[in-house]
Design a protein that fits this description.
The protein is α+β, with helices and mostly antiparallel strands. It is 41% helix and 11% strand.
Length: 673
């Protein structure tokens, strides 16, 4: 048994031993970790490839880089890189003692960091695994990884990786991509002068960019040619001929692929959020996007903006599966080539009346029904601001001061939404909105009118609670990631959360179907969309934002149209005229891809035939519809007073009115006591 230390130096010895053991353990763990990472590189060059939902390759993580084998790179370029970056590359074990000693000597003489001693292998280690921070710890890690690279890879493999990963200016990585940009030819076809020009960019990619500083790049290439001759890679005659050549560079070609640009950028960022900026070779990323749906989204947005005359308008579209959260299509603006800013995920704007379904859902969850009546709507205001009144456009109802929830939503009545928020409680509405993914909204009377800020992605996902039977789903784009060995390194499971009952969700679904069939979104039917769909328009003050968020059983789609700086879209730019047609176009284009069915009616709801006009018990001649009631809902017992009906029904109505009048008088008498 070990004796416990008693003297102070014994305690110091124990502490030193503990630190040493801990340091050795951490170092061993670090070395094993990077040894495994380096070993994966033995598979050679490659890239992370993203696959669409149909399992087909779609795009690469870095479309600015195109990995090729070493034999597909001009020997001139290979020799030029070795000559200028690491002349003893084929002799040293990853670290070059001569180069390090020379760098230290020159740094000491100059009194500053005048020269680095990094080998080509060290540069590769830094590019693949480390930052550019100039610290002792980073240099130690760089040296250790360089040795690991030399142990596990051949010199040709190291050079191949370096040439495919090196940064060469203008956002271009790798010699194959730079050769295509500069000379419109593969790297294996480069002349000596062209190879020297590219090799010279490694030292200062930004400063020596041939598109901005051709003469500087040319002078640097002449230095490279001199080094190549000194080291025996070329003859004096070859050097002289190359010096006389002036490589003709091509105009800079934008690396941005406008097709699905916003969707691809979003997916790349999702990947990098999980794995950092590395480009693992031969990894596969399974995504949720459906190429045919993505193309339909881009066409629908382009056609819609063209119809509106363009004129600086932007648009965003998000389409997702309400049961899985799979984002199947995304458009983030009018023209990706002009602006890569993704308005679908990053822009936050007022949703206007598209927020009202959140308020109505909160009301139904407190025990109201679709035919609960809101009264005295002409007197609705804000308690904290007596002069404020919600403004409304003209309504089709005979008495807009007294409306059922179903009619108020279908008509998008502002006073009704504000009254409902006050009746339910603003905090209850905010709580439901937060649960649905709409956060940081203001606690104000105008919340019901969409005065908060939301993104198209978040609002679209919030609507998933309606076809999702009360469960809201978290959007997902990257589903699965497989490493070079085919092992799954990341999986994003479906994330659904119940925020209201399936009965409340179905009642709201039936009300939002009325918005499409009979209300402010009836243009959906005029534009040829068929089947069971629901949705809500949203237009903000002065026509600055136009929204339509709608759904079927298989898809939720949100569309926003506006300007980057909130300004009027145009005169009479209601959402039904601006955003809704884009939604309808997309739904028609994708109907064969996403087969929709009727919405499932949950158990526990009771049905009642009511008059579609009065929402009371029907009489002869009433147009009827089926209303859905959950436990505790008040089912109307009165007969419709709008339509005449039979003599017996008319007499019954008279009796009901008399009894209600008598009941009111009796209540008044007792109420005055």
């Amino acid at each position: 048994m070990l004796k416990a230390p008693r003297r102070w130096w014994e305690w110091i010895a124990v502490a030193i031993l503990a630190v040493a053991v801990t340091g050795a353990t951490v170092s061993a763990w670090w070395m094993v970790r990077y040894a495994r990472a380096v070993h994966r590189l033995t598979r050679g060059v490659g890239d992370t490839v993203f696959y669409s939902a149909d399992g087909k390759p779609w795009f690469r993580l870095d479309e600015q880089r195109h990995d090729v084998a070493l034999y597909d790179i001009s020997p001139h370029l290979q020799h030029a890189i070795v000559a200028v970056e690491d002349r003893r590359f084929y002799q040293h074990p990853g670290l070059d003692p001569i180069g390090i000693a020379r760098a230290i000597y020159r740094d000491v003489r100059s009194g500053s960091r005048a020269e680095g001693g990094s080998t080509l292998t060290q540069q590769l280690a830094r590019t693949l695994f480390l930052s550019n921070a100039r610290t002792v710890a980073r240099k130690a890690k760089e040296a250790s990884i360089a040795v690991l690279l030399e142990v596990q890879l051949t010199k040709d493999q190291i050079l191949e990786l370096y040439l495919n990963r090196v940064y060469l200016s203008a956002g271009v990585y790798g010699v194959e991509a730079m050769s295509a940009h500069l000379f419109r030819k593969p790297a294996k076809s480069l002349t000596l002068a062209e190879a020297a020009l590219i090799a010279g960019l490694v030292k200062a990619p930004s400063t020596l960019s041939p598109w901005a500083n051709y003469q500087g790049a040319l002078r640097r290439s002449h230095t490279i040619l001199g080094l190549m001759r000194q080291q025996g890679f070329i003859t004096a005659a070859e050097e002289q001929a190359a010096r006389l050549a002036r490589p003709r560079i091509q105009p800079f070609r934008s690396p941005r692929d406008p097709k699905a640009g916003w969707a691809k950028d979003w997916l790349r960022q999702q990947f990098r959020n999980q794995f950092g900026g590395d480009h693992p070779p031969d990894w596969q990323v399974q995504t949720s996007f459906v190429p045919a749906a993505q193309e339909a989204a881009e066409r629908a947005v382009a056609a819609g903006l063209t119809r509106l005359g363009g004129n600086g308008l932007q648009a965003a579209l998000v389409a997702l599966d309400p049961l899985t959260g799979n984002v199947v299509a995304m458009v983030g603006g009018a023209d990706y080539r002009r602006s890569t800013f993704n308005r679908a995920t990053r822009s936050r704007r007022q949703p206007g009346s598209a927020f009202k379904p959140i308020v109505y859902t909160a009301a139904l969850a407190t025990g109201m029904s679709p035919v609960s009546v809101l009264k005295n709507l002409d007197a609705v205001g804000a308690p904290e601001d007596p002069e404020w009144r919600p403004r409304d456009v003209a309504h089709a109802t005979a008495d807009p001061s007294s409306l059922t929830l179903r009619v108020a939503l279908s008509d998008s009545n502002n006073a009704a939404a504000v009254a409902l928020q006050q009746q339910v409680g603003t905090r209850r509405v905010l709580r439901l909105a937060t649960d649905a993914g709409l956060r940081d909204l203001p606690e104000v009377a105008s919340l019901a009118l969409g005065s908060g800020l939301v993104s198209p992605m978040d609002l679209t996902a919030a609507y998933s609670m309606f076809p999702g039977a009360g469960e809201v789903v978290v959007p997902r784009g990257v589903i699965n990631v497989f490493d070079a060995n085919g092992d799954s390194t990341f999986y994003r499971a479906v994330d659904r959360q119940r925020i209201v009952s399936d009965k409340v969700a179905f009642q709201m679904t039936s009300m939002l179907r009325d918005v499409v069939d009979h209300g402010t979104a009836s243009q959906v039917r005029a534009l040829g969309v068929t089947g069971a769909v629901g949705g809500k328009t949203g237009t903000t003050n002065d026509y600055r934002d136009a929204w339509f968020v709608g759904f079927s059983s298989s898809l939720v789609v949100g569309v926003w149209v506006g300007r980057d700086r909130p300004e009027p879209i145009g005169r009479e730019a209601y959402a039904a005229r601006v955003a809704l047609p884009i939604w309808a176009d997309f739904m028609k284009r994708t109907a064969p891809l996403f087969r929709a069915t009727a919405f499932n009616i949950p158990a526990g709801l009771t049905t009642e035939e009511l008059c579609r006009v009065s929402h009371l018990q029907p009489v002869d001649g009433c147009p009827v519809y089926t209303e859905y009631f959950k436990d505790g809902d008040d089912v109307p017992a009165q007969l419709c007073g709008v339509h005449d009906g039979s003599f017996k029904q008319a007499a019954t109505r008279v009796f009901q009115r008399a009894m209600r009048s008598l009941g009111s008088r009796i209540a008044g008498i007792f109420g005055r006591r």
